[in-house]
Task: structure prediction
Amino acid sequence: MVSDTARITDLPLEVLEHILVILDPLDVASTAQVCQLFRGLVYSADDEHFWRALYLAQSFDDPRQVVSYLGNRRTDIKWREELQNIIRARTVVNDVTVCRPDERCQVLRTLLDMVTNLPPLPFPESEPTSRNVVWMQTLLQDGEFLDLESHSHEEEQLRARLHTWFGLTDRDALATKRVVSRAYVYSQRNYRPSNSFGPFMRDGSGVVNWVHMQKLAHVFASALVEKEEDEELAFEICSMSLPFCQGVIPPSLDLSRETDWAGVEGLWRISYCFMDHRELLKDEPLDHTIFEDGELEETFSAVDIFFRVINVERDPDHPTRPKINYVGEMDGNFSIVGYVKLTPDHQVRWHFVAGNGDQPVWWGEAIVMGNIRSQYGVLGAWSTTLHDPQDPIGPFWMQCQHPIED
Result:
C-alpha cells in the first residue's frame, strides 16, 4: 500500500509566505536556499511586497511613520535592502569578528539611520513610543561595540555620533574612560578659532566633530548621574539618552512652513559645569593624571531663560530651514543673543554670546541632539568671548521647559 507524504511545499503560497514572514530574517535567508520554490518566494518577486511584510514583522518602527533628524518624512523606502542592512548590522554587533573591513562604516551608518529616523511625538508629555529605540538599547547597552577601535576618520566620527545619541553605556562608568573624556573637554587646545571654539572640525569647515561631542556628552551625563540625589538641581538625568531622541512635532505642524522650525521660542534651562581652571592651566597639553585622584570635581549651575525669535534669514543651502536669530533674557539684566542654523553637514547649530547689559562675556557653541525639537536638548561647550588661553571653558546642556505653542 502506497501513501502520499505531505510536504510543506504542498501548502498554498499564501500560507508559505505567512510562515516565512514570522521567521527571523536570517532563518528566511536559510530557507530560501532549500529549494527553488522558497527562493522564488523570497527573492524573485518583482515588487517588495514580501520584504515589506517581513520588515514590518520585526521589532522596528514603520519607516512610513518616521521623520528624519530635521523632521522630514521618508519618500523612498527600500524594504529589502534596508532590512538586510539592519540584520547584518545586528550580526556584526553581536560578533564583530565576522565584520569585513569594507563594511565597518556601512554598519555604523545603518545603526545611525535607525536612531535618526524615529516616529515623532505629538506632545512634550507623550510617552516615548519608538521600537527602534528599544531594539537599539538592547543591542548596544553594554558598550562593547561603541568602544571598538576605529580604522579610519570616517568610522571614528560615525561611531562617536552613534555613541553620543545613545547616551551612557555600562562601560562609560569606568573611571579610566571618564578621565580621558574630562581631559579632552577641559583642554584649551581643543578650542581654537579654526573650530569656532566649539565642537567642530579644526579645518574651518563648520562640520561637527563627533568625537568632541561624545566627550562632552560623557562628561556632562556622568556628572548628572552623580548629582541625581541633589534635590536642588532636580535634573532629568536620563534625558541625555536615546529614549528622548524622538522629535516633538504635532500632526498639524509643517516644519517646512514654520519660521521657528527649531522650536527656539520658549523657556529654556541652561545647565553648565566647570572646574577650577587654574589647575587646568598648569600643563598644556593637559595631563590626564590630574583627574585621577578624584579631588578635581565639576561645579554645577543652571539658569532659566526665555528665548524669542526676532527674525529669520534665508539660507540658500537649506531653503526650508532658514537661519533663526533669537534673543533671551533673565531678570531683565542678563541677556543672550544668538542664532540657530544648519551646518554644512546638515546638523542644527546653536550659537550665542551672553552677559550683563551690552557687554557680552560668555560664548556658546552647541549642536541639537536627538531629532529636531526632541527632549534630548542641545549640547555644547561654553567659553569667554575673549577666548584668552587663561579663561575657563566647559560643557553645557540646554532643554526647553515650556515651548511656545503656535
